[in-house]
Specification:
By secondary structure, the chain is an alpha+beta fold. It has 13 helices and 19 strands.
Length: 499
């Protein structure tokens, strides 16, 4: 009997019947005996001094308690992805003296049901004593010499700055026949999964272990950060990621609520649950991608790019949370793309502003690099009068040059391209897209006063950060295979792919 082939075949997804028939278990579906519900009081100002936070709501029927930063001894949320250039500008789960973005948690109300908790939070919000402060609305204002400093201990609004170098950049530019420049900005985004975030926590009555359910894309990282924040060993803490109704990267962070809800479960000795409203999601969940890329390319008259110099400026919002400086780091490590560029320098600047903290969103720094580099390549082609596809062919890493050592690294490991047929892949893509046919249609449309654009982009995907991942495969006596992995599915068909 011939072996069954799976590559190239259409596969039915194994997880779909369970989810489509309502048998999934999302955070909102989870219940515990004697469950309490939490609602957060959030800052309506982008920047304000915090005065009194009234606690009269604690006397409302059904309200169990009102808690502020003064009720807990908490430091900033631990950074899950450290970086040597990161300066101390982390977010304390409940703001103490100053609110630095709209939606920042100031207090939390716990009640016997969600509606009462939200009513209590609303009553407190109406009586908050906040004194508005000057707002830093963008990275240019943040880096100005006279900008209000958001974190007093820093002296300025830089969360971090560093330089990446490969080769002899200054010499390459000094010898360049031509230099092409461009500034390419990517606006602020956020993911909008159907399911918002949520957290539930309880203390196991038998083992005493703290159990936390979170709609997170990376439960292991949340566990590590929680253990550090709560001052407890990881083996005393279990983090469960239930079914996720989408993630898009915004659930790949460590949030204030993931620290506060477990603390409340410990303090009250009862299960506590919080589910984010859509309004909270707009303001409190991570935003992403607000970066400006100033690029200079040293080129020869026939279109060979010999060197690239970049300044990447990222608006990280008010704090660095779980991801820290990860996204602009990935941008700086991805700007060489699939090209044979031997001399490279990137200066990265991460600004602090009065906006929601930045995090990951679909590629986490990679798409920003591709956008900037490919727009710059188009500008080179335009200035030299070359076909954009031909310019890329001239600069691709050639098949006989692999393995190609980029000179860059990730997670203390060198980034090496092991193989590729970039020019052949591009030619096939142009053929399948019928680019020549589209050129004709473009000319015809322009004659009629209509504008049709034809875009082209090439990139190499950095699929993982490293340095390692683990998995376990078990074959039991019945012949059944069990696969254990840290991958957190949220719509990609992970179960089917692993099976």
């Amino acid at each position: 009997m011939a072996a069954e082939r799976f590559f190239g075949q259409r596969m039915r997804r194994f997880e779909d019947p369970r989810l489509l028939t309502g048998a999934g278990a999302y955070l909102e579906d989870l219940r515990q005996p004697d469950l309490l519900h939490a609602a957060f009081v959030r800052s309506p100002y982008a920047h304000a001094t915090i005065g009194a936070i009234p606690k009269e709501a604690a006397r409302m029927s059904g309200v169990v308690g009102v808690f502020t930063a003064g009720d807990f001894k908490l430091g900033p949320i631990p950074t899950a992805v450290p970086h040597p250039a990161l300066r101390p500008c982390g977010q304390v789960p409940l703001a103490r003296d100053r609110a630095r973005f709209v939606g920042e948690p100031l207090a939390v109300v716990v009640a016997t049901d969600r509606y009462t908790a939200e009513d209590g939070a609303g009553a407190i919000a109406a009586e908050l004593e906040l004194e508005p402060l000057p707002v830093v609305a963008g990275w240019e204002a943040a880096l100005a010499p006279d900008a209000p400093v958001l974190h007093e201990g820093l002296g300025d609004n830089l969360a971090g700055s560093w330089v990446v170098r490969v080769g002899e950049v200054e010499r390459a530019f000094a010898e360049a026949e031509r230099v092409v420049r461009g500034s390419f900005a990517v606006q602020r985004y956020t993911g909008m999964p159907i399911e918002t975030r949520g957290v539930m926590a309880t203390v196991d009555p038998i083992s005493g272990r703290l159990v936390v359910w979170s709609s997170t894309q990376w439960p292991h990282t949340v566990r590590r950060a929680l253990a550090e924040a709560l001052g407890m060993p990881e083996h005393r803490l279990r983090v469960v990621a239930p079914d996720l109704g989408g993630g898009f990267g915004v659930k790949q962070d460590v949030y204030p609520e993931e620290v506060v809800i477990p603390l409340l479960a410990q303090r009250l000795d009862r299960p506590v649950k919080w589910v984010e409203t859509r309004r909270e999601h707009f303001t409190g969940t991570a935003h992403s991608r607000e970066q400006v890329h100033d690029l200079e390319l040293a080129v020869t008259s026939d279109g060979e790019v010999t060197a690239l110099r970049a300044v990447v400026t990222a608006d990280l919002g008010a704090y660095t949370r779980g991801l820290g400086l990860l996204c602009p780091s990935i941008t700086a490590g991805s700007l060489l793309g699939p090209y044979r560029i031997r001399h490279y320098q990137a200066t990265v600047r991460c600004a602090l502003t009065n906006k929601a903290p930045a995090g990951a969103y679909r590629g986490a720094g990679g798409p920003e690099a591709v956008f900037a580099l490919e727009r710059a390549m188009d500008r080179v082609a335009q200035e030299l009068g070359l076909d954009p596809a031909d310019l890329r062919r001239r600069n691709f890493i050639r098949p006989d040059e692999f393995p190609w050592h980029t000179g860059l690294g990730t997670a203390q490991l060198p980034v090496v391209y092991d193989s590729g047929e970039y020019a052949a892949n591009l030619d096939r893509a142009l053929e399948l897209a019928d680019r020549d046919g589209w050129r004709q249609r473009q000319s015809a449309a322009r004659a009629e006063g209509r504008y049709v654009g034809i875009g082209l982009a090439c990139y190499v995907l950095l699929g993982g950060l490293g340095p390692y991942e683990s998995a376990e495969v078990r074959l039991d006596p019945s012949g059944e295979v069990v696969v254990l992995t840290g991958a957190s599915p949220h719509g990609q068909g992970t179960d089917t792919a692993l099976a």
